Amino acid sequence: MSFTVQGWCPGALRPMASGDGLVVRLRPPGGRLNTRAAAAVAEAALRFGSGVIDLSGRANVQLRGVTRESHAPLIAALRGAGLIDADIAAETRRNILVTPFADAATDALAAALAGVLATAPALPGKFGFAVDTGAAPVLRETPADIRLERAAAGGLILRAEGLAEGAPVTAAEAPAAAIALAQWFVAAGGVTDGRGRMAALIARGARPEGALAPRLAPASACAPPGPGLCPTGALVAFPFGQMRAELLAELAGLGALRLTPWRMLLIEGLSYLPDLPGLITDPAAPLLRVYACTGAPGCPQALAETRPLARTLAPQLPPEAVLHVSGCAKGCAHPAPATLTLTATPAGFDLIARGRAADTPCRRALGAADIPSLPEFS
Ligand code: SF4
């Protein structure tokens, strides 16, 4: 099993080369696109890219099919919409995930944290913060290293990933305390060769002390929701988290958009579910239980196409089963175990039961045409 692990995270200013051109990853401030910014993204995707837009598992927006020539004018257009950081270092550092169910206080907290990030020490590229201070935490299943949440007893807590409890903080203290926890992470030996995660440091027995010492339990988490109406608007999903720019432009006309790590957008204030091609609004849709990475030809590491097979298999999935079709053993689309995983190899697809893309298969070297008739899919 061989695949390339990038030591850095692509962004807008440092795009990633892919099989269909450059992938430009945007991290909208506060995880929100107002109607003007959303329309600007849609227009830029059409004008400077292929018009294909992906939603990432970290609530980012990715524009595909950008060329070396169109990258600079794309950045200029998006900078005008307030979506581009001053430089690559600032872009990399601003790794803040915000609950899509943010209230004004949460938005203010996320903005205040972003405002002090320049004072943070050098952190690994994937090191991130989660501001999950809505009515109930919803981001627990999304990787993060430092979390701001509500305590079960009320008030805010700052929690290091891997610890069951957090330190109490006020909203005014929270940004500086989050930076102090990041400083502790570095000082405690959390970074090796530019890499490291909080949970791994905690697993080695390190514990923050003093004001950062964990002592309050967080509120119980809510499971990530499916598409449908919620108190703050309409949640809509997309097959494999991908849409055309024309659809984004239509959604931009319906309201401001909150990004989620669940391949969905929240259209703020909308009290009905829009009926548009390319949207999934039925929470029972089988495609919601199917993960498939870009695959061939979009990803240069892919050993097969993934999404056509995933679409074919979706209606055949047993109830509750989760399917992951991966173009290689890296398993980008779904790092967690799935009920069934199909991993492309040079010899065909391997089938893994209740595991990850790189786990030991129960069947090997399957032809894509033969897979739908396997007993696992009937
Ligand atoms: S899992 Fe898919 S997207 Fe990730 S590297 Fe492999 S083929 Fe590419």
Describe it.
This protein is α+β, with helices and mostly antiparallel strands and 378 residues long. It folds into three domains: 16-88 and 231-268, Sulfite Reductase Hemoprotein, domain 2; 102-212, no CATH class; 286-377, Sulfite Reductase Hemoprotein, domain 1, CATH 3.30.413.10. The chain contains eight helices and 20 strands. Strand 11 (228-230) and strand 12 form a beta hairpin. Helix 1 (35-48) runs antiparallel to helix 2 (68-79) and helix 4 (104-116) packs across helix 5. The two termini are 29 Å apart. The structure holds iron/sulfur cluster. The site of iron/sulfur cluster (SF4) has 13 residues, from loops. Residues 3, 293-295, 299, 301-302, 326-328, 330-332 line the site of iron/sulfur cluster (SF4). GO terms for molecular function: 4 iron, 4 sulfur cluster binding; metal ion binding; precorrin-3B synthase activity. This is Precorrin-3B synthase. Pfam families: NIR_SIR_ferr. It is an enzyme of class 1 (oxidoreductase).
Bound molecules: iron/sulfur cluster
Cα-to-Cα separation, first versus last residue:
29 Å
Low-confidence stretches: none
Element pattern in H and E:
EEEHEEHHEHEEEEHHEEEHEEEHEEEE
> Strand sequence of the main sheet, in spatial order?
1-2-5-4-13
Whole-angstrom Rg: 21 Å
Query: How many domains is the backbone divided into?
Result: 3
**CATH topology of the largest domain, what is it called?**
Sulfite Reductase Hemoprotein, domain 2
Helix content: 10-25%
CATH class of the largest domain: Alpha Beta
* Tally of strands: 20
Q: What gross morphology would you assign?
A: globular
Briefly note the structural class of the backbone. Answer: alpha+beta
Number of helices: 8
Main beta-sheet strand count, sense and barrel state: 5 strands, antiparallel
Fourth-level CATH superfamily of the largest domain: Sulfite Reductase Hemoprotein,Domain 2
CATH architecture of the largest domain: Alpha-Beta Complex
Average pLDDT? 95
Quote the beta fraction.
15-25%
InterPro entries: Cbl_synth_CobG-like, NIR_SIR_4Fe-4S, NiRdtase/SiRdtase_haem-b_fer, Nit/Sulf_reduc_fer-like_dom_sf, NO2/SO3_Rdtase_4Fe4S_sf
Keywords: 4Fe-4S, Heme, Iron, Iron-sulfur, Metal-binding, Oxidoreductase
Protein name: Precorrin-3B synthase
Pfam families: NIR_SIR_ferr (PF03460)
